[in-house]
Each structure stands twice: as structure tokens, then as C-alpha cells.
Design a protein that fits this description.
mainly alpha, 4 helices, 119 residues, flat
């Protein structure tokens, strides 16, 4: 149990901070509601009155999702690799070089399709 005590303490602090932040923001925050604040927000697109199922999402929505997945997968694999870099040796270096190459191809595709321009 002593091994898991720091993890439990950190989890308790995180939960306490989250609950504290929500409660304080409700108490201290402004309470001026208007029509725009009450509308549903979806991926930065202004909501338009359309029939359900007839609207198509723009490609920018999917490009943003793909960019998030690329960043997420890159961090998930790079962090453990950096922690155990010495133990992996040459095989780990080659495997990570191939992974970085694959991620670079995905970044190049995203850049070419205009997913990195936020206008």
C-alpha cells in the first residue's frame, strides 16, 4: 500500500482541485446569460437551423480531429521511449526513427491539406 500512497494522494488533490474550481467559478463567476451562451457549441461552427441528418460537417472538422490524433499518438509513444532510451539500444533508435518518419508523413499530409492554417 505504501507504493500506491503518492498516487492516491495526487489523485485526491486533482479531484479536490477540480471540485473546488467548479464550485468557486459558480459562486464568483458572472451570471449574465444570453442566447449565444445558451446555444450548443460544436467544433467552432456556427449552429444553423437545418433538419437533423441533412447537414454535412466541413473537412476542417476532420482535419482537426486527425491533427489531435497525430499529436496524441506521438506523445504516447515518445514519452516512454525517452524514459527507457538507454535500455532500448540501437533497436529502439531505429524503431523510433521509423515512427518519426511515419508521423512526419502524417504531418506533411496535414500541412498540405491546410489543416495547420487556422483562418
Amino acid at each position: 500500500m505504501n507504493v500506491y500512497a503518492p498516487i492516491l494522494v495526487l489523485g485526491a488533490i486533482a479531484v479536490a482541485f477540480a471540485v473546488f474550481s467548479v464550485i468557486v467559478s459558480r459562486i464568483v463567476g458572472p451570471k449574465r446569460l444570453n442566447r449565444a451562451k445558451l446555444e450548443a457549441y460544436e467544433c467552432g461552427i456556427e449552429p444553423a437551423p437545418q433538419a437533423v441528418g441533412s447537414a454535412r460537417f466541413p473537412v476542417k472538422y476532420y482535419m482537426t480531429a486527425m491533427l489531435f490524433i497525430i499529436f496524441d499518438i506521438e506523445i504516447v509513444f515518445l514519452y516512454p521511449w525517452a524514459v527507457h532510451f538507454d535500455a532500448l539500444g540501437f533497436f529502439g533508435l531505429v524503431a523510433m526513427a521509423l515512427f518519426i518518419f511515419n508521423v512526419s508523413v502524417a504531418y506533411a499530409y496535414e500541412w498540405r491539406r491546410g489543416g495547420l492554417s487556422w483562418d
